[in-house]
Task: inverse folding
């Protein structure tokens, strides 16, 4: 059974994807200044998971170009939505390989050269999803999308449980 924080990260991912249901490829690349477009956000979150859970944790280099395209502090871009979704799906599947292996003891360890523990990186990744879910929801509101998700979805798969 995965650690509670891993379960919460998966829930955050599912809420992000729920927020994106019905977004067209055309709307996904529309930029509402000063926010980034939705396709950028998908790639951006994929890039973080790739950096933490695939590259640092497993030494595997998936989509090495993502950091230059959608990484923190990089210039705004409007990458194709389908490409960003594909990268996100592949990266999160690869990340899950590592995340499934986590133990309470692992959470207090550090990747070489890292300033934050694995547990803190996991929290950072989790909160990052909710930050960008809200931003993507705002972009969709401005674009006039009807029937957007309200509040937090079904938490049956992410109920509270102590470590």
Result:
């Amino acid at each position: 059974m995965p650690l509670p924080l891993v379960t919460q990260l998966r829930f955050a991912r599912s809420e992000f994807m729920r927020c994106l249901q019905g977004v067209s490829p055309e709307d996904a690349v529309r930029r509402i200044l000063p926010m980034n477009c939705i396709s950028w956000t998908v790639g951006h979150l994929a890039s973080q998971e790739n950096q933490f859970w695939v590259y640092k944790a497993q030494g595997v280099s998936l989509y090495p170009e993502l950091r230059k395209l959608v990484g923190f502090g990089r210039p705004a871009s409007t990458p194709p939505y389908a490409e960003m979704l594909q990268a996100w799906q592949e990266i999160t599947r690869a990340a899950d390989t590592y995340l499934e292996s986590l133990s309470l003891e692992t959470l207090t360890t550090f990747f070489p050269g890292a300033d934050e523990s694995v547990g803190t990186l996991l929290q950072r990744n989790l909160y990052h999803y909710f930050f960008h879910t809200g931003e993507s929801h705002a972009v969709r509101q401005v674009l006039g999308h009807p029937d957007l998700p309200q509040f937090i979805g079904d938490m049956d798969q992410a109920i509270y449980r102590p470590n």
In short: The radius of gyration is 16 Å. The chain is about 55% helix and 0% strand. The chain has a mean pLDDT of 94.
